[in-house]
């Protein structure tokens, strides 16, 4: 089969012919039809320690059809269209068994890092990671939904707890995750303040439901938020960027009782800058602020997200697609911050 293979830390991916993987007793073999491409992959392959061994096939937002199953697989059938969960978990610890598998106490790593991923014609995944795709949802939409839309679902619903009339600031609103955060916050009833840099990203955020757009190049972000909220600030700030500057600005933009939700992160090994930021405990205490980390989603939340896509209540925003052999071109666009919305591979 054809695959785009990573041979070392931060190296360009190379097209190769490799054997079709064989499923173990509890595994599923999938013919990949689409795979999302985002900043998570770009950061992962350049961060020391994340990829467990080389050569490795990256890519974790997979959609396709099952072609074979292991002898112990009971709930997945050949011919079924499926997507997947990104984390490789034990399934046995107290967090996995209580629906908090993203906080697995005995994690096995990530798809595309600790096992081969979806930048290939076929992929093998544990049955535990499989999520069925409902009828009416395309392969590209399902691949993107498994992370870039499911993550906003969890962030808005469980962490920010966005409600009707809440002012919600989304930092990095025009990117592949941010553009779906705009839609999800609106679906929850929020008034969306979409912040980004770049006219194309701001225009895309406005197109997909932002009530206000904030050009972060034009003045201090928190002050622009205060101006748009009659001085009160944002009830929730969802930071998809995760730099020291954006996180500090997000705290300053919060209203009394507001919540800062961290989605994005910029590893120092990749970006060359320490992303840590200072928190004044008295400021947090006196204003009753909350700090949340939003760590991916559960498999159940992926299924709920796919249902929202099926109902057309959330629309996957895929602005460009590439064939498998052009994945490095897609990665370069992401590294240059030259993409608005999500990118996906279509694997014929």
Descriptive overview:
Helices cover 28% and strands 25% of the residues. With 348 residues, it is an alpha/beta fold. It folds into two domains: 2-132 and 317-346, Quinone Oxidoreductase, Chain A, domain 1; 152-293, Rossmann fold (3-Layer(aba) Sandwich). Strands 3, 4, 5, 8, 9, 16 and 17 form a seven-stranded mixed sheet that branches. Helix 4 links the parallel strand 10 and strand 11 (191-196). The mean pLDDT is 96.
Features:
single chain; 348 residues; alpha/beta; Quinone Oxidoreductase, Chain A, domain 1; Rossmann fold; 7-stranded mixed sheet; 6-stranded parallel sheet; 28% helix
In short:
The chain is built from eleven helices and 17 strands. It is an alpha/beta fold and 348 residues long. The protein has two domains: 2-132 and 317-346, Medium-chain alcohol dehydrogenases, catalytic domain (Quinone Oxidoreductase, Chain A, domain 1); 152-293, Rossmann fold, CATH 3.40.50.
């Amino acid at each position: 089969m054809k695959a785009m293979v990573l041979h070392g830390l931060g190296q360009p991916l190379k097209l190769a012919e490799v054997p079709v993987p064989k499923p173990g007793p509890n595994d599923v073999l999938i013919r990949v039809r689409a795979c999302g491409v985002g900043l998570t992959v770009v950061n992962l392959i350049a961060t020391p320690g994340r990829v467990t061994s080389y050569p490795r096939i990256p890519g974790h937002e997979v959609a396709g059809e099952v072609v074979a199953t292991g002898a112990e697989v009971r709930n997945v059938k050949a011919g079924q269209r499926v997507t997947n969960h990104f984390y490789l978990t034990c399934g046995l610890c107290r967090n996995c068994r209580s629906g908090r598998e993203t906080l697995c106490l005995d994690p096995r790593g990530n798809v595309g890092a600790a096992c081969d991923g979806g930048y290939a014609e076929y992929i093998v995944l544990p049955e535990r990671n499989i999520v069925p795709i409902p009828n009416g949802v395309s392969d590209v939409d399902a691949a993107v939904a498994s992370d870039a839309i499911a993550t906003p679902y969890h962030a808005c619903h469980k962490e920010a707890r966005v409600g009707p009339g809440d002012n919600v600031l989304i930092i990095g609103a025009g990117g592949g995750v941010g553009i779906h955060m705009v839609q999800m916050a609106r679906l929850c009833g929020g008034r969306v303040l979409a912040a980004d840099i770049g006219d194309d990203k701001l225009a895309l955020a406005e197109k997909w439901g932002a009530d206000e757009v904030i050009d972060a190049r034009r003045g201090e972000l928190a002050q622009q938020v205060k101006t748009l909220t009659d001085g009160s600030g944002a009830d929730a700030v969802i930071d998809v960027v995760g730099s020291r500057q954006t996180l500090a600005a997000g705290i300053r933009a919060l209203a009394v009782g507001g919540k800062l939700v961290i989605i994005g992160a910029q590893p120092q090994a990749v970006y060359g800058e320490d992303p840590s930021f200072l928190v004044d405990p008295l400021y947090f205490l006196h204003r009753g602020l909350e700090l949340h980390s939003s760590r991916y989603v559960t498999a159940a939340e992926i299924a709920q997200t796919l249902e929202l896509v099926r109902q057309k209540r959330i629309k996957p925003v895929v602005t460009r697609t590439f064939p498998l052999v052009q994945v490095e071109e897609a990665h370069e666009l992401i590294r240059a911050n030259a993409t608005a919305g999500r990118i996906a591979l279509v694997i014929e």
